[in-house]
From TrEMBL:
Molecular function as annotated in GO: ATP binding; ATP hydrolysis activity; ATPase-coupled transmembrane transporter activity
Name listed for the protein in its UniProt record: ABC transporter related
Family from the record: Belongs to the ABC transporter superfamily.
Organism (species): Thermofilum pendens (strain DSM 2475 / Hrk 5)
Residues annotated as domain ABC transporter: 4-234
Residues of the whole record sequence present: 2 to 235 of 510
Compartments, as annotated in UniProt: Cell membrane
Reported function: Probably part of an ABC transporter complex. Responsible for energy coupling to the transport system.
Entry keyword annotation includes Cell wall biogenesis/degradation: no
Segment forming the signal sequence: none
Length: 234
């Protein structure tokens, strides 16, 4: 079924800058979508909109609507949306608290009032899913760039979302780390049915992992389809 529905979404920042212009998108459960395009074309703004940061945290003028797992993002608080859609923002450091890996993943669950026994279970499961078993006691400063991103992904997965949206997750990650992050996303997508939406500017990475590419330009979707058809190889 459909897990993300964006209808005629336009967004302007308070300074009047229009970042999204009549964007419509329908994404089904289990898709792996790369969002591409020159900067700036509205990719990060779309990430804010898909995760509910717009309208709850990032202010501006909105037209149109975003529904995730059937919920209109305007009508539900971020904490409620986070159980449906996980978000990884561009700067991984900003998302990590410098706690031990186990606490990093546990804290959002504690904040939601999840019982301790359930937290233990979910933290173990989430670290396992991103290949960070054995890293429980490490802090982010003791992790590589790719490991940090996978820890951020684990902390989002522990909430058991249907969709994960990532904004250039490997922008500051070396090539081996990039591969690990994407192999992790591929496994989550194929084995757990997680819907993946990722802003990625490396064409070769998008072609290899995504099943669908959405190309943006000037705040609009200008192409949408199979990566091999949408993306020029350069
Ligand atoms: P991309 O991710 O494709 O680089 P963005 O979504 O970051 O594009 O930016 C789209 C447009 O919105 C740009 O013109 C950018 O300058 C503007 N923009 C982004 N963030 C803000 C902000 N916080 N305040 C004002 N304008 C912004
Ligand atoms: P450059 O930064 O080299 O001038 P562009 O501004 O054209 O390149 O695009 C920046 C990024 O946007 C590229 O790295 C690519 O990921 C993406 N992009 C833009 N247009 C296309 C396209 N037609 N096919 C694939 N990727 C594209």
């Amino acid at each position: 079924g459909e897990v993300v529905r964006v209808e005629n979404l336009s967004f302007s920042y308070p300074n009047g800058r229009r970042a999204l212009d009549s964007v419509s998108l329908s994404i089904s459960q289990g898709e792996f979508v790369a969002v591409m395009g020159p900067s700036p074309s509205g990719k990060s703004t779309l990430v804010y909109a898909l995760s509910g940061l717009i309208p709850h945290c990032v202010k501006g003028e909105i037209k149109g609507s975003v529904k995730v797992d059937g919920l209109d993002t305007r009508e539900h608080p971020v904490a409620e949306l986070a159980k449906r859609v996980g978000v990884i923002l561009q700067d991984p450091e900003a998302q990590l608290l410098e706690l031990r890996a186990v606490d990093e993943v546990a804290l959002p669950l504690e904040n939601l009032g999840v019982p301790a026994e359930e937290i233990r279970l979910r933290v173990g499961e989430a670290l396992e899913m991103v290949g960070l078993r054995g890293y429980e006691e490490r802090s982010p400063s003791e992790l590589s760039g790719g490991e940090k991103q996978r820890l951020a992904i684990a902390s989002v997965l522990a909430l058991r979302p249907k969709v994960i949206v990532l904004d250039e997750p490997t922008a500051n990650v070396d090539p081996p780390g990039t591969l690990q992050v994407y192999e992790t996303l591929k496994r989550l997508n194929e084995e757990h049915g997680l819907t993946v939406i990722v802003v990625e500017n490396k064409v070769e990475v998008a072609r290899r992992y995504a099943k669908r590419a959405v190309l943006m330009e000037g705040g609009r979707v200008v192409a949408d389809g199979e990566p091999s058809k949408v993306l020029r190889s350069d």
